[in-house]
Write a structure and sequence with these properties.
Length: about 80
């Protein structure tokens, strides 16, 4: 689980990722890598990247290697830099 308190935008983000990957929010937060979730593939990763762009806008441009965003923890850490 994330150590810091989750803000409203992050809560919406986590909820939408859980729908994309068809897992509960709690299950999603327990995973340290999306690849450990059945049904995760490159198209799901693109959906997640698109979601980041919609919710966070220009912040996605500051992230160098989008392929390394393989968990909720990693994504939120990068977005909060």
């Amino acid at each position: 689980m994330l150590k810091k308190k989750i803000n409203k935008l992050e809560e919406v983000f986590i909820s939408k990722i859980s729908k994309i990957l068809s897992v509960s929010k709690n299950e999603l937060l327990k995973k340290d890598d999306f690849s450990k979730i059945d049904g995760y593939d490159s198209l799901k990763h693109l959906e997640i990247i698109t979601l980041i762009d919609k919710l966070y806008g220009k912040k996605i441009k500051k992230i160098g290697d989008l392929s390394k965003l393989t968990s909720v923890k990693k994504i939120i850490k990068q977005l909060n830099k």
